[in-house]
Specification:
alpha+beta
C-alpha cells in the first residue's frame, strides 16, 4: 500500500485521557476503535491495559484510538485483536505457569501468532509494540530473562521475514513484578519510517555483551495516520550513550541524559518529516524503578519541560523495572502533528 493510498484510508487518531474520562466517553456512546490503559490490567472488547502501579497518587491514564467505523474483533492463536481493515491493535497475555515453556519459547510463540494475526487482518506492518515481562532482570536459568525474551522475539521476526534489524518497529520492554507476559501492538497497511538516535548505537547492533540476540526495535518510528497527520512513536528511552549505561546510581543524572536522548531522536525524526515534533508536546509514560524517586523525577521534568506543558499534563508515572538492572528511569512517548514523510 502506497502513502497515497494511506491518505485515502480511514485516519487513525489517538487522545490521552484519564481512565475515568475514557470510560465515561465510551458509556456516552463514543466507543473508540481500541484503547490502551496504563496502570490497570484486565480488558474487555475494546480496552486493554497492563497492571503496573501508578505513582504519585495519580489516576490511571488511557490512550483512546479512533479509526474506521466497521471494526471487527478476532482471535489468532494467543492473540486477540481489533481491526477496521486498515489498522490493527492486538493483545497477548501469556502466563508462563499455564504453558510450561521458558520465556524464549513463550515470546517466540507470542510473536509468531502476532505476525499471523497481522497477515489475517491485512495489516502487515508493525508500527509500535509494548512489552511487559514479569521479573525482567531475574536469572531465567543461566540467562537473564530479558535476554531470553530477546532471543525468542528476534527468532520470530526472522521466521516471519519481518525487519529484525534496520526497519524494526518502535518498542519498549519493561518489567512488572508479577502476572503474565503482556504484549500490546499497533499495526497498519503502510510501513513506518524508522528513526535512530545519533547519540546511541542502534539496539539491534548491540555487542554480544548484552546477550546472544540483540533487542529488536528502532529508537523511534514515524507513521502516516491519514488525514494529513504523522505520528512519532518514541521507544523506551533511558540513560544510554553509545551502547553503555551512564550515570549508574544517579537518578537525576540519568534523567538528564534521558532527556538529551529524547530530544536527539526527536530532532532526527524532524529531519525525515515536514511535521515538527517537540518533547513538550508529546504524551509520555515515565517508568520508575524505585517509587521513592518519583517525586524528584516529576519536579525535574517540570523544571525541564514546564509544569503546564502537554508532556506534564498527560504524563503517567508507573513503577516498573527497566531492561537493564542499573537503569532507574525510562521514558516512552508518542505525538501526532500535521505533515508528511520525506522518506
Amino acid at each position: 500500500m502506497t502513502l497515497a493510498a494511506a491518505a485515502e484510508a480511514p485516519s487513525l487518531r489517538v487522545e490521552r485521557l484519564t481512565l475515568g474520562q475514557g470510560l465515561a466517553r465510551a458509556a456516552g456512546g463514543a466507543k473508540p476503535f481500541a484503547a490502551l490503559s496504563y496502570g490497570v490490567g484486565g480488558d474487555n472488547a475494546w480496552i486493554t491495559g497492563v497492571s503496573a502501579r501508578v505513582l504519585l497518587n495519580s489516576e490511571p491514564m488511557v490512550d483512546l484510538w479512533h479509526a474506521g467505523a466497521a471494526v471487527q474483533s478476532g482471535t489468532t492463536g494467543v492473540v486477540r485483536w481489533r481491526s477496521d481493515g486498515h489498522w490493527l491493535l492486538g493483545v497477548v497475555d501469556l502466563d508462563e505457569n499455564d504453558h510450561g515453556e521458558d520465556l524464549t519459547a513463550l515470546s517466540q510463540r507470542a510473536y509468531r501468532n502476532l505476525f499471523e494475526a497481522m497477515k489475517q487482518a491485512g495489516c502487515p506492518h508493525l508500527l509500535r509494540i509494548w512489552n511487559y515481562l514479569p521479573r525482567i532482570n531475574d536469572d531465567g536459568g543461566g540467562m537473564e530473562r530479558y535476554r531470553q525474551f530477546n532471543a525468542g522475539r528476534q527468532q520470530a521476526f526472522l521466521e516471519a521475514g519481518q525487519a529484525a534489524f534496520e526497519g524494526a518497529p518502535a518498542a519498549c520492554a519493561l518489567g512488572v513484578h508479577e502476572g503474565a507476559l503482556c504484549i500490546r501492538f499497533l499495526a497498519g497497511r503502510v510501513p513506518p519510517l524508522p528513526v535512530e538516535n545519533p547519540r546511541q548505537v542502534s539496539a539491534y547492533h548491540y555487542p554480544s555483551d548484552y546477550g546472544p540476540r540483540s533487542p529488536t526495535f528502532s529508537r523511534a518510528a514515524l507513521a502516516p495516520l491519514g488525514g494529513g497527520q504523522v505520528a512519532l512513536f518514541i521507544s523506551g528511552t533511558a540513560s544510554i550513550v553509545g551502547h553503555q549505561t551512564v550515570h549508574v546510581g544517579d537518578v537525576r543524572a540519568q534523567l538528564d541524559e534521558t532527556l538529551l536522548n529524547l530530544r536527539a531522536v526527536i530532532a532526527a525524526a524532524n529531519e525525515r518529516s515536514s511535521a515538527i515534533f517537540t518533547l513538550e508536546r508529546s504524551d509520555p509514560v515515565v517508568y520508575v524503578r524505585h517509587p521513592a524517586d518519583a517525586p524528584g523525577i516529576r519536579r525535574q521534568l517540570e523544571h525541564a519541560l514546564g509544569a503546564g506543558s502537554r508532556f506534564m499534563r498527560h504524563a503517567v508515572f508507573l513503577q516498573a523495572d527497566i531492561c537493564r538492572s542499573e537503569l532507574l528511569v525510562e521514558i516512552e512517548a508518542h505525538a501526532t502533528e500535521p505533515g508528511e514523510l520525506r522518506g
